[in-house]
Design goal:
Layout: H1 2-8, H2 14-27, H3 29-41, H4 50-66, H5 75-81, H6 87-99, H7 102-105, H8 109-114, H9 121-134, H10 142-151, H11 155-167, H12 174-183, H13 187-199, H14 202-207, H15 209-214, H16 222-235, H17 237-240, H18 244-253, H19 257-270, H20 274-283, H21 287-299, H22 306-318, H23 322-332, H24 337-340, H25 344-352, H26 361-374, H27 381-393, H28 399-411, H29 421-430, H30 435-446, H31 455-467, H32 471-487
Length: about 500
């Protein structure tokens, strides 16, 4: 269908052109390359319609950029399109060159760099972006890219230039990036400058910390503040300690819940101010912020304190929102056993449905998986394994909860009764598009004794191994088939 889809690229309606592009991309270069090249090399069929000529040519350039090595012999054709009269064609041609790799495009770097002086600002931005995508082979163009950042009249080329400098590791251009962050009037440019500072690494981010912290003020746009918090995290705990109260203040009082969430994440990533996170774990009225706080508390890991463990346990038992309780259970898995031991009872209650009255299957599954991490390390492991066997046997329990019990038991080499095989095999047939059931049930089959395996089970697993959209499921299915062979 390659030629038919290329004809779709000539259609008037955008939806048809876009559908044709999507199909050609899925078909890949084996089918699509020849008709795409034919269109690019051939004359325009309809010179009266911009959509039917230049837009189709633009799409073909995009497709060549997705074809990888198959497009390498046709670099000259893309370079020729960078001189096309229509800006959109030049844009896609130069972006496609940026995707083909520096080794292939090396002889044409000057042609790409020349487009930084194009009269169309979108083309200038695309040229800068392509140089950034090509990596260190373009390091010699840093000063020209910095000139775009400092002097271009339009925001888009300036923001593209900032990100390109970050990708190229242009530490010598840090001053230009900080200046753009502080002085540029474009929100996108400031956000790109902050991201670029983060891309330059810990040393550059630490040097730029005063500017990054200054741009956290509420008068700045969300995108700028988000990018600054990301770069601050890269600067590291030691460099950030003198500025940490500014982030705590955001966590405690900022009006934007998204920024409070990111402030919580930043504190967790830096392993700083656990006490502030603990205090806000109950005080913040926004459930999304509390979820970020739970994740941040878990991020302390071995550095966590008893207060951190207690806060997570209280969130698991008392928070009013299911996904916050689920995240708290997941975060507890990151704690060391000496801190989690005191709260295993709360995890057991949540796993068994005796915790919060509104606990759903996701909360119970998270609690079971966290228990599963700690079970082999505790003295009364048999108690917890017996508990999971009881939940697995209880047909009134949500099936996803039962498969999670099975997953933990099988993962710890505990024997699971073959009596469950017919039920779970039937489930797998009915719900064969849900990767979680595929993974859990096939994992059970993998550890079954030979006498429990029937030909229908082998066929079922083989079908999943061929048809599943999840690579992990395919892998466990193949391993299960090998286990079936060795058992037989």
């Amino acid at each position: 269908y390659g030629k038919e889809m290329v004809e779709c690229l000539r259609m008037y309606f955008y939806e048809i052109r876009d559908a044709g592009r999507a199909v050609l991309e899925l078909l890949g270069p084996e089918v699509s390359l020849e008709p795409v090249l034919e269109l690019l090399n051939g004359p325009d069929k309809d010179t009266q319609s911009y959509q039917r000529t230049d837009r189709s040519r633009e799409t073909c350039c995009y497709l060549l950029g997705t074809f990888g090595k198959a497009a390498h012999p046709h670099v000259e054709l893309l370079v020729a399109q960078t001189k096309h009269d229509v800006a959109h064609v030049r844009c896609q041609a130069v972006l496609a060159l940026g995707k083909l790799g520096a080794e292939t495009v090396q002889p044409h770097l000057d042609a790409i760099a020349a487009l930084m002086r194009d009269h169309d600002y979108v083309v200038r931005g695309c040229a800068v972006r392509a140089l950034g995508d090509l990596g260190q082979a373009c390091a010699g163009y840093r000063k020209y890219i910095a000139k775009v950042l400092e002097e271009d009249r339009e925001k888009r080329p300036r923001s593209d230039a900032a990100l390109a400098l970050g990708k190229l590791g242009a530490e010598d251009c840090l001053t230009s990036l900080v200046k753009s962050l502080c002085e540029d009037q474009g929100c996108d440019v400031k956000a790109a400058a902050a991201k670029a500072i983060g891309l330059l690494g810990q040393k550059a981010a630490a040097e730029a910390l005063p500017a990054l912290v200054h741009k956290l003020k509420p008068s700045e746009q969300y995108d700028v503040r988000e990018a600054c918090l990301g770069a601050i995290t890269i600067a590291g705990s030691e460099a950030c300690t003198p500025h940490i109260e500014s982030i705590v203040e955001i966590l405690e009082s900022d009006s934007d819940d998204r920024i409070r969430s990111l402030a919580a994440k930043t504190l967790g990533d830096l392993h700083l101010k656990a006490d502030a996170l603990v205090a806000r774990s109950k005080a913040d009225e926004d459930s999304n912020v509390r979820e970020f706080i739970a994740n941040a508390l878990g991020a302390f890991g071995p550095e966590a304190t008893t207060e951190v463990a207690s806060a997570l346990s209280k969130m698991l038992s008392g928070d009013s929102v299911n996904f916050v309780r689920r995240t708290a259970a997941q975060a507890m898995a990151k704690l060391p056993l000496e801190l989690a031991r005191e709260h295993l009872g709360q995890l057991e209650d949540s796993a068994c449905g005796r915790g919060h009255p509104e606990d759903d299957g996701d909360v119970r599954r998270a609690a079971i998986l966290t228990l599963g991490k700690f079970i082999p390390q505790v003295e009364n492991a048999k108690h917890y394994f017996d508990l999971l066997q009881e939940l697995l046997a209880d047909t009134s329990v949500d099936l996803r909860v039962r498969t999670t019990c099975m997953e933990v038991l099988v993962g710890h080499k505990q024997e699971v009764s073959p009596d469950y095989v017919p039920e779970f095999a039937a489930t797998l047939r009915k719900r064969n598009r849900e990767w979680y059931f595929q993974y859990a049930v096939i994992q059970l089959f993998k550890f079954l004794k030979a006498e429990a395996i029937g030909p229908d089970h082998v066929d079922l697993v083989a079908k999943v191994a061929k048809s599943s959209n999840d690579e992990n499921v395919k892998q466990i299915a193949k391993e299960t088939l090998e286990a079936f062979n060795s058992s037989a």
